[in-house]
Amino acid sequence: MKYKVLKKQNSSKSCLVCGVENDLGLKARFYQLENGELASIFNSKEFHQSYPGRVHGGISAAILDETIGRAISISDETIWGVTGSLEIRYKKPVPLDCEIITVARVTRDTRKLFEGTGEIILPNGEIAVTASAKYVKMPVAQITDECNMAEEWIDIPDDDPVQYIEIPGR
């Protein structure tokens, strides 16, 4: 099924998951969808490998953690999630050298905490990895007070702006 993109979220320069200047990172892009979910897209590379031809399980955990943790900012851009717990279920290998889509949503939201779920969806629509997580809500300014966020947290325009994301298997 195709979902309309409402907004592209910012990226950082150095982050392992979204850092555009991190040569070994995922360079994931994050998009807020019309159905209230957050989707991330990255292209798996050989240096993300564990067993031959497969993305390392830690990389799968990292993209799920980041995507679920960012989902809270759909409702409040001034809040980020700081991971309290993350439970991962590996169901199928995540292949290398292809586009990987991760989808996440907030499932419970209180004043100080939130919970969410997410999944890595393979190009054929199968779910490869699922996660559920709990986060502490933190104001962005509190997390980033030791660095210059204007230089680190940036809007990277797409050469070809994404208007819709098709999620296989839906």
Structural commentary:
The protein is mainly beta and 170 residues long. The protein contains three helices and ten strands. An eight-stranded antiparallel sheet has the order 5-8-7-6-4-3-1-10. A two-stranded antiparallel sheet has the order 2-9. Strand 7 (113-121) and strand 8 (127-139) form a beta hairpin. The chain is globular, with a radius of gyration of 15 Å. The N and C termini lie close together (5 Å).
Top keywords for this entry?
170 residues; mainly beta; eight-stranded antiparallel sheet; two-stranded antiparallel sheet; 3 helices; 10 strands; globular
Concise structural overview:
This protein has 170 residues and is mainly β.
Secondary-structure content class: mainly beta
Q: What topology, given as strand order, has the largest sheet? A: 5-8-7-6-4-3-1-10
What is the string of SSEs from the N terminus onward? EEEEHEEEEHHEE
Low-confidence stretches: none
N-end to C-end Cα span: 5 Å
Strand content: 35-45%
Q: Number of helical segments? A: 3
Helix amount: 10-25%
Mean pLDDT: 90
Which of globular, elongated, flat, extended, rod-shaped describes the shape?
A: globular
**Alpha carbon gyration radius:** 15 Å
In total, the number of strands is: 10
Largest sheet, in brief, is:
8 strands, antiparallel
Write the layout of secondary structure elements.
Blueprint: E1 2-8, E2 11-12, E3 29-33, E4 38-43, H1 57-71, E5 79-90, E6 99-109, E7 113-121, E8 127-139, H2 140-143, H3 149-152, E9 153-154, E10 164-166
Antiparallel strand pairs: 1-3, 1-10, 2-9, 3-4, 4-6, 5-8, 6-7, 7-8
